[in-house]
């Protein structure tokens, strides 16, 4: 018989909380150790995801470390062996009651008209830890209330308890230290610098973490009371980061998203675009019934008629050109279930290999099959190599995670970029390349001793994405291949932007054997070879960088079927438009960029007669004579688990047990390398064009969310300030921008982020009455890069 | 007895007393390098450079040069708290003298800036410090000008900079002008301010500046007067220094007296032996109360110190004895109140200062200080009630829970509570707002009660959530 040695955890610290012997982890703060062991210490300023400041003094407890009990703020002190903590001793209680009375002294107590009332930590803790009544009879301080500190956030300084949470978030987490304390003593207040609004992409988080009703967001103000809210935990699909959210509704209308602290993904944070675009789900312009094209335009029809028309369109196309003449674009907006049902319909029922979930704005799907990193792996790698678009604009919460990795000194970022990005100031090294010459930048990096020494220090994760829509994916892929050839152990995090593009691609919405990719489909359509084009939530006229190609493709496709939530520009050309249930109107699963599969939940009834995409696919298949066998979304989830490589474990039950999601194994996808990069002579085209997305643009959901629609920066051609005089125009002037394809007129802007010799134009911006120019007109999908000339009018 | 006065600066009175830091005050051009060099200037630095840094450090430690800023911590011991082999390490000179009633450092900077600079250099040499930052309070324009002038002169003469006096010792001194906030006199807030942040104190531990200070590096924060002692100490040696004063409080000490005395001003007194009675009534010092009035009370160590009454007049300037009696020597500011003083108004004046100067970080100080002020304002204006007087204690209790130090504890049959007291705030600004209220209300409650003319009870109904 052997006696097992008891395993001693070197990180365990034994202490006493209210006389009970408990164990905590070394380095845990007292407040957390107490909470983990069932003793809640009241707090306002303490937040688990930010550094402690000990500002509100609410968490004062008596602690005896051998020198007699002392009052200390429990959010500032880590546990120590044999420490005795008294959370409810008379002195602790007196201190907490005293502090709470002081915090309430100047508080307006306008709870009946305060949005926070009912979910307010100040209110709750006033009842649980407060003295019950106030002795303060002096006049309270008065401020103008509320004042807007940004387009989205209002500040009520009377309610503020100065906990430093919003200011710490802005400074530490978001890196936009645009709000701070001003004045002092009893007049201390939070404010922005005059004329510099709190224009942060992450401002909504301050509203969520505010422990009182001082910060409110305009889309939610006075919309509901917390006790009227129903909630479902879901995943945001605005971009591919896959932040966990709580979708909250009142009277069957979505009123708010709140970030959920998901440790592997978003840590509770959301970007403002994801947080506030719930307004588009409630939009009055949502497509509520099927539309069938008649001689006089689109007419509302029944589902029966619309589905019959759809089936007829497909049957006709099959008869006219065979399966290869049918193509499907899109699917990134829906769930895995939607994508799988449509993939079955396209590949198995119709039999076409021409399927793509991208819109000429991504990367070849082979990148998904590379040795893929998770977000956690990227944020803990010794070196992060960025070969990606501006993550702050495209994948904002991934930006927060990588920024945190740098701030916490876990990682160093080596950035290869054509234009300064949000992460440039956090990068250990940034090398700027001229668009198209990424491979040269990689070669220079690999030849640099200091950089290689850094790379040799540990794990390497390459974040790769399409940084420039005015160049093809070829230069990025060439650079990536060169990088991976030299660093075979490096992992890759694909920064593809569209919501569920990874899931849609992995479950089957990708080119089959010999099939065309998105550019191939559009070219074939433009050449009249596509009998039927199915647009699954895709709007090529807005989203394809090469606008001319998109226009020709939609003109050349003989039949167009659109399944969408709104009547998009492309839908207006469709023969039949089927209304799709939107986000929060259907259950299912989604896959984020690291391959993590999470549940998305239905919270409200779909608008009008709209249906989930998977249901539409099943109906169409039935009319084409095939029963896909799906009656509920769970049926589709099970079928995915059964049929899709890497998704074997992802059953409904398994996912319910793992709210943070499960990473699906990367599928086997053959890499198809794009053609080699060809950089022609620049001739008189002085500037190389960079086109990339900004967080706010005229994407469908953003444009239909009134709070966000006005935030898009607008179209302009941005050049380095030193280049402005070379052009001979002044900032703000209209200039002629000419590429090999077309000439458009754009206002000129100076931007220090843009390198000399290049010009940057934000993509997909709302057109104004005075300027309807589209940058897509200048872009040629077949060219490696786009060179332009900028001239005065 | 000679009195030297300058326009715009407070009076200084010398006497038949040892002069350690004020020896040059009698000269009209005491702030110039020329005068400084003719009066043993930079001799201390030369003496220091002739020794090893450890020897100089030991000398300062042996002389027990107590910190003159308020807490009275020995400078030599403080220098020894830095973690070894962490560089760079900084010296920060706390010239943000703003405790109510205190104006001694101002004179040292205005009238003898070179002495301070020499002290800085000696400290940097002894403690192995890489750079020195001189933080001068925003309101002290003349001090700032004179120190800047002196720095330029000293740089030009080779006393600061690279290879000072031909040795291998190099140091730079940077002058920083504050923006005028009382709380920045607290050393961690001073460091925050110096870093360009809002002047708010950091919580200690774990961030004692000696370990983690300016820019996260080991930092010594010393008071102006503390450093001004070093040149004399190095010139004359430890043995001479400890001959002045007592064993536990050697040397001299500058005190600034204000209030109802015949001769308010700054005095350099012998540490540990001079009593408050000497200071207030001595012919060489303040020469008694104005108009022959009765002494009612006095503040022994700056506005934050609990008050003393004539009973404590015979206490000497010795930190431990004053602490045991329920107050502190603090920054060396004595405020004298004669029998005509309106005590509630005096308490209000001090509390108003602290309420205004709260940085806003800790809720008890931010809200409690203002609350105390509001109640006092009401009482002084004659609109107070009995309940208000108890409430002042209750509000103070939320800032300083538990027993509070106070001068007549023993007379009232209470155990003496030495300074410092318990507090719910990070720094002493919060308790400082309560100290004058507590002292005044405990010692002179009858005066407050006389003010409470309308003795009725306001029913307190403003409950939470109602």
Structure description:
The complex is a heterodimer of chains A (793) and B (466). Chain A has 793 residues and is of the alpha/beta class. Chain A has 25 helices and 34 strands. In chain A, the strands form 8 sheets. Chain A has a 7-stranded mixed beta sheet, with helices on both faces. Chain A has a 6-stranded mixed beta barrel with strand order 29-33-30-32-31-34. Chain A is globular. The mean pLDDT of chain A is 93. Chain B has 16 helices and 10 strands. In chain B, the strands form 2 sheets. In chain B, strands 1-2-8-7-10-9 form a 6-stranded mixed beta sheet, with no helix packed on it. In chain B, helix 12 (343-357) packs antiparallel against helix 15 and helix 13 packs parallel to helix 15. The radius of gyration of chain B is 23 Å and the shape is globular. Chain B starts with a strand and ends in a 15-residue tail after the last helix.
């Amino acid at each position: 018989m052997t006696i097992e040695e008891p395993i001693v955890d070197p990180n365990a610290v034994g202490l006493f909380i209210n006389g009970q012997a408990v164990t905590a982890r070394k380095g845990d703060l007292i407040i957390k150790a107490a909470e983990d062991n069932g003793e809640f210490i009241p707090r306002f300023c303490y937040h688990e995801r930010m550094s402690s400041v000990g500002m509100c003094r609410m968490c004062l407890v008596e602690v005896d470390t051998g020198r007699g009990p002392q009052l200390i703020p429990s959010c500032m002190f880590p546990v120590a062996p044999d420490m005795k903590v008294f959370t409810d001793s008379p002195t602790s209680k007196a201190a907490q009651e005293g502090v709470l009375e002081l915090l309430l002294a100047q508080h307006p107590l306008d709870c009946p008209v305060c949005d926070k009332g009912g979910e307010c930590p100040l209110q709750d803790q006033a009842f649980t830890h407060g003295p019950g009544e106030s002795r303060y009879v002096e006049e309270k301080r008065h401020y103008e209330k509320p004042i807007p500190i940004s387009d989205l956030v209002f500040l009520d300084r009377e309610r503020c308890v100065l906990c430093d949470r919003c200011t710490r978030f802005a400074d530490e987490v978001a890196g936009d230290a645009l709000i701070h304390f001003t004045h002092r003593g009893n007049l201390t207040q939070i404010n922005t610098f005059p004329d510099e609004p709190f224009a942060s992409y992450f401002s909504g988080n301050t509203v969520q973490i505010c422990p009182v009703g001082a910060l409110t967001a305009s889309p939610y103000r006075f919309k509901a009371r917390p006790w009227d809210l129903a909630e479902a935990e879901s995943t945001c699909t605005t971009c591919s980061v896959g932040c966990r959210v709580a979708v909250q509704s009142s009277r069957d209308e979505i009123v708010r998203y709140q970030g959920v602290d998901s440790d592997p993904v978003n840590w509770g944070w959301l970007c403002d675009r994801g947080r506030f675009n719930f307004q588009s789900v409630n939009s009055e312009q949502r497509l509520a019934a099927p539309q069938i094209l008649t001689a006089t335009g689109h007419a509302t029809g029944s589902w029966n008629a619309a589905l019959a028309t759809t089936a007829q369109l497909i049957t006709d196309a099959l008869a006219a050109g065979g399966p290869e003449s049918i193509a499907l674009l899109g699917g990134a907006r829906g769930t895995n279930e939607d994508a799988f049902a449509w993939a079955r319909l396209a590949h198995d029922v119709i039999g076409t290999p021409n399927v793509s979930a991208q819109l000429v704005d991504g990367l070849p799907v082979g990148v998904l099959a590379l040795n893929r990193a998770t977000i956690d792996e990227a944020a803990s790698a010794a070196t992060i190599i960025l070969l990606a678009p501006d993550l702050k604009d495209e994948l904002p919460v991934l930006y927060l995670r990588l920024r945190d990795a740098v701030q916490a000194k876990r990682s160093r970022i080596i950035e290869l970029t054509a234009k300064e990005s949000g992460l440039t100031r956090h990068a250990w090294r940034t090398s700027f390349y001229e668009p198209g010459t990424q491979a040269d930048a990689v070669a220079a990096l690999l030849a640099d001793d200091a950089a290689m020494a850094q790379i040799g220090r540990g794990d390497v994760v390459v974040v790769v994405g399409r940084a420039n829509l005015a160049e093809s994916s070829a230069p990025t892929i060439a650079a990536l291949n060169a990088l991976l050839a030299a660093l075979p152990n490096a992992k890759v995090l694909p920064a593809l932007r569209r919501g569920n593009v990874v899931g849609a691609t992995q479950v089957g919405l990708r080119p089959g054997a010999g099939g065309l990719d998105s550019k191939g489909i559009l070219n074939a359509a433009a050449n009249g070879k596509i009998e039927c084009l199915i647009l699954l939530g895709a709007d090529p006229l807005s989203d394809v960088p090469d606008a001319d190609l998109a226009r020709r493709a939609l003109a050349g496709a003989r039949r167009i079927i659109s399944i969408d939530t709104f009547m998009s520009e492309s839908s207006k050309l469709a023969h039949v438009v089927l209304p799709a249930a939107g986000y929060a109107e259907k259950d299912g699963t989604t896959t984020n960029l690291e391959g993590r599969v999470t549940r998305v939940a239905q919270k409200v009834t779909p608008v009008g007669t709209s249906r989930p995409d998977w249901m539409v696919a099943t109906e169409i298949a039935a009319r084409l004579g095939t029963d896909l066998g799906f009656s509920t979304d769970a049926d589709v989830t099970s079928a995915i688990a059964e049929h899709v490589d890497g998704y074997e474990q992802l059953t409904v039950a398994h996912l319910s047990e793992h709210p943070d999601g499960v990473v699906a194994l990367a599928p086997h996808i053959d890499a198809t390398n794009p053609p080699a990069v060809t950089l022609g002579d620049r001739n008189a085209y002085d500037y190389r064009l960079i086109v990339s997305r900004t967080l706010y643009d005229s994407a469908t959901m953003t444009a239909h969310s009134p709070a966000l629609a006005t935030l898009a920066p607008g179209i302009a051609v941005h050049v380095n300030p030193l280049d402005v005089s070379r052009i001979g125009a002044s900032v703000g002037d209209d200039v002629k921008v000419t590429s090999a394809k077309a000439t458009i007129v754009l206002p000129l802007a100076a931007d220090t982020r843009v390198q000399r010799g290049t010009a940057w134009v934000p993509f997909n911006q709302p057109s104004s009455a005075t300027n309807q120019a589209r940058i897509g007109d200048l872009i040629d999908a077949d060219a490696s890069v786009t060179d332009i000339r900028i001239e005065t009018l | 007895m000679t009195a030297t006065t300058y326009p715009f600066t407070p009076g200084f009175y010398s006497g038949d007393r040892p002069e350690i830091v004020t020896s040059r005050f009698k000269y009209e051009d005491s702030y110039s390098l020329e005068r400084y060099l003719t009066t043993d200037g930079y001799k201390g630095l030369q003496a220091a450079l002739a020794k090893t840094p450890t020897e100089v450090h030991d000398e300062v430690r042996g002389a027990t040069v107590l910190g003159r800023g308020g807490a009275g911590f020995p400078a030599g011991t403080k220098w020894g708290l830095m973690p070894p082999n962490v560089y760079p390490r900084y010296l920060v000179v706390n010239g943000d003298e703003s405790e109510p009633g205190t104006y001694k450092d101002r004179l040292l900077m205005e009238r003898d800036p070179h002495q301070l600079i020499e002290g800085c250099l000696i400290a940097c040499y002894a403690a192995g410090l890489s750079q020195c930052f001189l933080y001068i309070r925003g309101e002290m324009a003349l001090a700032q000008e004179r120190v800047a002038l002196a720095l330029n002169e000293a740089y030009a003469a080779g006393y600061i900079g690279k290879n000072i006096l031909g040795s291998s010792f190099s140091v730079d001194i940077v002058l920083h002008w504050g923006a005028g906030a009382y709380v920045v006199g607290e050393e961690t807030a001073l460091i925050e301010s110096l870093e360009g942040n809002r002047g708010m104190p950091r919580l200690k531990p774990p961030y004692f500046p000696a370990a983690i200070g300016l820019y996260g590096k080991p930092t010594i924060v010393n008071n102006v007067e503390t450093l001004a002692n070093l040149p004399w100490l190095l010139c004359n040696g430890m043995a001479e220094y400890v001959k002045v004063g007592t064993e536990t409080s050697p040397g001299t000490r500058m005190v600034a007296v204000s209030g109802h005395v015949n001769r308010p001003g700054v005095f350099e007194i012998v540490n540990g032996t001079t009593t408050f009675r000497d200071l207030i009534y001595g012919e060489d010092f303040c020469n008694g109360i104005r108009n022959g009035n009765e002494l009612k009370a006095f503040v022994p160590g700056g506005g934050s110190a609990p008050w003393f009454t004539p009973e404590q007049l015979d206490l000497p300037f010795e930190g431990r004895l004053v602490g045991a009696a329920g107050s502190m020597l603090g920054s060396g500011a004595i405020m004298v109140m004669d029998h005509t003083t309106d005590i509630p108004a005096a308490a209000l004046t001090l509390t108003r200062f602290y309420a205004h100067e709260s940085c806003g970080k800790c809720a008890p100080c931010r809200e409690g200080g203002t609350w105390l002020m509001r109640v006092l304002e009401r009482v002084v204006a004659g609109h107070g009630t009995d309940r208000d007087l108890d409430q002042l204690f209750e509000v103070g209790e939320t800032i300083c829970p538990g027993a509070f130090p106070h001068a007549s504890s023993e007379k009232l049959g209470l155990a003496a509570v030495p300074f410092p007291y318990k507090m719910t705030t990070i720094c002493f600004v919060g308790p400082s707002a309560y100290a004058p209220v507590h002292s005044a209300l405990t010692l002179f409650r009858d005066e407050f009660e006389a003010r409470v003319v309308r003795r009725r009870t306001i029913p307190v109904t403003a409950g939470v959530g109602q």
